[in-house]
Structure formats: structure tokens, C-alpha cells
Amino acid sequence: MNWVIENIPLIADRTWAHLATSIPAIILALLISIPLGWVAHRFRPVKGTLLGAAGLMYAIPSLPLFIVLPILIGTGVRDVVNVVIALTLYEIALLVRSVADGLDSVPADARNAALALGYPPLRRFFAVDLPLAGPVILAGLRVVAVSTLSLCTVGAVLGIPSLGLLFTDGFQRGILAQVVTGIVMTVVLALLADRLLVLAGRLVLPWTRPIGTGERPRARRRPSSGRLGISQAPEVRA
Amino acid sequence: MNQLLEAFAWISEPSNWTGPSGILARSGEHLGYTLLTLLIAAAIAVPIGWWVGHTGRGRGLTVALSGAARALPTLGLVTLMGLLLGIGLIAPLTAFVVLAIPSVLAGAYAGFEAIDRGVVNAARAQGFTESQILWRIEAPLGLPLLIGGLRSAALQVVATATLAAYVGAGGLGRYLFLGLKTQDYAMMLGSSLIVVALAILLELAFSAAAWLSVPTGVKVARRGAAA
């Protein structure tokens, strides 16, 4: 506990670096995944290829990717940009499926009604399709946010700042409290992000608020497969 | 791109492949850690997952556990175990098992849960005992999702196994950290590419296994439904 009290500025510093790496990656991935997911949803043959590629992308271990990326984009090995881009790629790999599945789950009636009311395509997408796909996208985004905030720490072995530096530094100097603090902070940030996303979802998608039972409505087509996201994608990255 | 060529030169140098710290030996260690972890994790998680799936008890706990595990940073766990258990293989292996269990557990339990209750009840009505239901109905029908869970775990461990070298064990991570220390970028990049190739091979192997594990009857039924 003493270590924590004496090192609050350090912990704050690392936490800030951690958030500054993962939050841009999450936002970037969401912005890229929406058009990509739309393409996968709209053009059937593309969907298989795109999701297959996403699956392979997700299979690539993070630490090697952090090392390979600088070659491809011309940054330094210790550049934080590598981590942001690598994290963004992993998130896209997960989110494209969520966006495509979400758009698939939009009832044809709602879409046709908007069409009949004379909504132009872009407005139909943003006012009808996207909000109705929202719950599925949000579910994907929660998984992505949690795994990103935890994955972000791996860059520390290359010296890229994040809460992960508390692990490497604590390990090298044999300070157990430092490692434990890093783990606790990472988990707390991840759970906090998850809660925040749930709350944001209730604000933005008020119709998904649970009524009575406390069970969130499921927008999945086949509730029997992959309830925990197993068949869709691996849950945790390393 | 020059660095990429140097990395390939490092990979294709025959003398880098042989010997106790050659690529072959390190890859063997790497895969060995992965398989050993999977075996231990499966031995612990499959019985529990099947029990949860069969009885429906402890479901909430299982879901909460696999959700929380997602937030657990792997590097943190590896270094924590390294400090607690000392340098060597036991520490990273323990960390990997802890990381692998939630995926396997979720796969085992979700596989059972996804089975149409009508099928289980029909078996019970025909006089199947509980253990017959488990082994002849639930285990085969739940296998594809269990393999899915093992696949997530395997991918995660094959990636994390790189970190084993950080706390003094072997595996392909050795090259990575050696390259980092000696500024030998070709070695770092070359070994990274080998880990990536290993992970993709594993992913493809598991996809094939998942497809093969679907019982013939189910495949026929699906084809019928699709036609």
C-alpha cells in the first residue's frame, strides 16, 4: 500500500498514457468498422471473405505485430503509433462482424417503412439502420473496449508507455506491489469502460432499456450459437 | 523493406534452425508450452464446464468469470507469477493456464447449453441414463463449441507464450527479447514472423478440427435446412 501512496504521480502518468493509447484506437476502429460492416452486410459474397480475413487478423499475436508494423508503416519500434494501429486492427477484426450482424438483424419492415416514407439512403442508414443495429454493435464494442484496455499493456515489453510499464518495471525491480497495482488498475479501467459503454448505450439507445425482467433484449438471430462470443471470435487476446 | 529482407535472411539461414537454441527447438518449446497449457486447462475446465452445462448450475458465475478474465492483462499475470514463483517454466505456465481456463470453460458449457433440450429429453424418455446422455448426446453435440473454446485458448496462449521468455523460460520469445536487447532487428522481426505463422497455422488447424467435429447427422440436417 505504501508503494501506491508514494507513487501516485507515476500511476497517474501511466494511466494517462494507457488511456491515450487505447481510446483513440477504440474510436478509430468504430469509425472504420461501420462502413466496412455495412459492405459486409450489403454484399453477401464479400462478407465471407471479409470475416475470414478478420479472423486471420485476429489470430496474429500482438507482440510480433507491434514489431512487424513499424516496417510496414515506417515508424520506430518504440513508437506508440504502432500500438494504436495494431489495437485498431484487432478491434476492426472484431467489430466488423458485430456491425454486419447488427445490420443483418434490422427488421425488413422498419427498413421498408423508412423507404416508403421517402427517407433518402444516407438518412435511412443513420436514422433507421444504424440505431436498430445499435445493441449488437454495442455488445461488440464492449468486448473490444475491455480487451483493448488489457491488451494495451503488452507494448510495455518494448518500452512503449502504458500501465504495462508497471509490470515490466515491477518485475525487474522485484516490487510485487507495483505489478499488482498495474493489474488492478488495468482491470478497473476495463470494467469502468464496460460500465460507461452500457450507460452510454442506455442514453443513445433508450429503447433497449430492460423492462421489468432485467434481461436485455437479444438481437441475435441464432441465440443457440456463440452466446459468449465463442463461435464468433476469441474472447481474449495476448 | 530492407529490414524485411534481412529478417527473411535470418529465417532462411540454416545454422539458425539447428541446435538447442535453434528455431526448431524454440518452436518446439513454444508449441509444447501451448499444448501443455491446453491439456492442463482442459483437464480443469472441461469437467467443470460440462457439469455447469449438464446441471445448469453455476451458470451466472461462469459467465461472470469469463467476462472478468477478458480484462485481465496477460503480461501482468505473467510478471506477477514470475515474481511469486520465481524464474523458470512454472510461473509462465501457471499464468497461461489461468488465462486459458475461461475460454475452455465457456466453450464446454456453451456447447452443452446450445443443444436443443428436446434432444436431451427424448434421450431421457428413451431410458438413457444421465451418463449416457452426457457421453452419447451432450459431449458429441457440444464438441464444436468446445473446440471453439479450445481454439480461443490456443491462440491466446501461442501469442502469450512469447512472453514466457520475459520471465526466463524458452520459446520463440527468446529471439524476440534477445533481438530487443542486442538491437538485432532482423532476429526480432524474423522470430515475430515465425510466431505469426505458427498462430495462423494453429488457427487453420483448429478451423479444420471444428468442421470435422460436427457430427454427420447435424451436417446432414444443416444441409437439408439450407437447401
UniProtKB/TrEMBL annotation, chain A:
<dbReference type="GO" id="GO:0031460">
    <property type="term" value="P:glycine betaine transport"/>
</dbReference>
<feature type="transmembrane region" description="Helical">
    <location>
        <begin position="50"/>
        <end position="74"/>
    </location>
</feature>
<keyword id="KW-0813">Transport</keyword>
<feature type="transmembrane region" description="Helical">
    <location>
        <begin position="80"/>
        <end position="100"/>
    </location>
</feature>
<protein>
    <submittedName>
        <fullName>Osmoprotectant transport system permease protein</fullName>
    </submittedName>
</protein>
<dbReference type="GO" id="GO:0005886">
    <property type="term" value="C:plasma membrane"/>
</dbReference>
<comment type="similarity">
    <text>Belongs to the binding-protein-dependent transport system permease family.</text>
</comment>
<dbReference type="GO" id="GO:0055085">
    <property type="term" value="P:transmembrane transport"/>
</dbReference>
<feature type="transmembrane region" description="Helical">
    <location>
        <begin position="175"/>
        <end position="193"/>
    </location>
</feature>
<dbReference type="InterPro" id="IPR035906">
    <property type="entry name" value="MetI-like_sf"/>
</dbReference>
<dbReference type="InterPro" id="IPR051204">
    <property type="entry name" value="ABC_transp_perm/SBD"/>
</dbReference>
<keyword id="KW-1133">Transmembrane helix</keyword>
<dbReference type="Pfam" id="PF00528">
    <property type="entry name" value="BPD_transp_1"/>
</dbReference>
<feature type="transmembrane region" description="Helical">
    <location>
        <begin position="132"/>
        <end position="163"/>
    </location>
</feature>
<keyword id="KW-0812">Transmembrane</keyword>
<dbReference type="InterPro" id="IPR000515">
    <property type="entry name" value="MetI-like"/>
</dbReference>
<keyword id="KW-0472">Membrane</keyword>
<feature type="transmembrane region" description="Helical">
    <location>
        <begin position="16"/>
        <end position="38"/>
    </location>
</feature>
<feature type="region of interest" description="Disordered">
    <location>
        <begin position="214"/>
        <end position="238"/>
    </location>
</feature>
<feature type="domain" description="ABC transmembrane type-1">
    <location>
        <begin position="15"/>
        <end position="197"/>
    </location>
</feature>
Automatic annotation (TrEMBL), chain B:
<dbReference type="InterPro" id="IPR035906">
    <property type="entry name" value="MetI-like_sf"/>
</dbReference>
<dbReference type="InterPro" id="IPR051204">
    <property type="entry name" value="ABC_transp_perm/SBD"/>
</dbReference>
<keyword id="KW-0472">Membrane</keyword>
<keyword id="KW-1133">Transmembrane helix</keyword>
<keyword id="KW-0813">Transport</keyword>
<protein>
    <submittedName>
        <fullName>Osmoprotectant transport system permease protein</fullName>
    </submittedName>
</protein>
<feature type="transmembrane region" description="Helical">
    <location>
        <begin position="74"/>
        <end position="101"/>
    </location>
</feature>
<dbReference type="GO" id="GO:0055085">
    <property type="term" value="P:transmembrane transport"/>
</dbReference>
<comment type="similarity">
    <text>Belongs to the binding-protein-dependent transport system permease family.</text>
</comment>
<dbReference type="InterPro" id="IPR000515">
    <property type="entry name" value="MetI-like"/>
</dbReference>
<feature type="transmembrane region" description="Helical">
    <location>
        <begin position="189"/>
        <end position="212"/>
    </location>
</feature>
<dbReference type="GO" id="GO:0031460">
    <property type="term" value="P:glycine betaine transport"/>
</dbReference>
<dbReference type="GO" id="GO:0005886">
    <property type="term" value="C:plasma membrane"/>
</dbReference>
<feature type="transmembrane region" description="Helical">
    <location>
        <begin position="31"/>
        <end position="53"/>
    </location>
</feature>
<feature type="domain" description="ABC transmembrane type-1">
    <location>
        <begin position="31"/>
        <end position="206"/>
    </location>
</feature>
<feature type="transmembrane region" description="Helical">
    <location>
        <begin position="153"/>
        <end position="177"/>
    </location>
</feature>
<dbReference type="Pfam" id="PF00528">
    <property type="entry name" value="BPD_transp_1"/>
</dbReference>
<keyword id="KW-0812">Transmembrane</keyword>
